[in-house]
Write a structure and sequence with these properties.
By secondary structure, the chain is mainly β. It has one domain: Jelly Rolls, CATH 2.60.120. Helix content is 3%, strand content 55%. The strands form 2 sheets. Strands 3, 4, 5, 6, 7, 8 and 9 form a 7-stranded antiparallel sheet that branches. A two-stranded antiparallel ribbon has the order 1-2. A hairpin with a 4-residue loop joins strand 1 and strand 2. It is globular.
């Protein structure tokens, strides 16, 4: 169940929001969308890779289910349910799914991040 308004979004169970068919293409499910904050579920099928790329936004990744690896910069981490990442803007990252991965992706756009500078640097 997903309930959304301009003030809050509620999802009773992230795992039930996804499609568990491992033979599908990459799927995205938008959970919340605002100018400075977006949240979505990515369902990444077994054997699929989201190739290395960068984002101008601050990212957090939380692994909801499945297994795979996440590379941030030059470091590769084996991931499964419960793993969590913070990725600063413009840092290269890649996701590989060894078993269908469900990932909660949150994207934050701060005025400082939009200019490539963070307040705490």
């Amino acid at each position: 169940m997903l309930k959304a308004s301009n003030r809050y979004t509620f999802c009773a169970n992230l795992e039930s929001t996804t499609n568990s068919d491992a033979n599908q293409n990459l799927q995205t499910t938008s959970l919340h969308h605002q100018k400075q904050f977006n949240a979505m579920l990515l369902t990444i099928p077994t054997g699929h890779t989201i190739k290395e790329h960068v984002s101008p936004q601050i990212l957090t990744l939380q692994i909801i289910s499945g297994m795979g690896s996440v590379t941030v910069g030059n470091e590769t981490h084996t991931v499964s349910r419960g793993a969590w990442f913070y990725i600063a803007p413009n840092i290269p990252h890649e996701i590989v799914s060894n078993e269908t991965l469900t990932v909660l992706l949150s994207m934050y756009t701060l005025p400082e991040a939009a200019n490539g500078v963070l307040a705490n640097e």
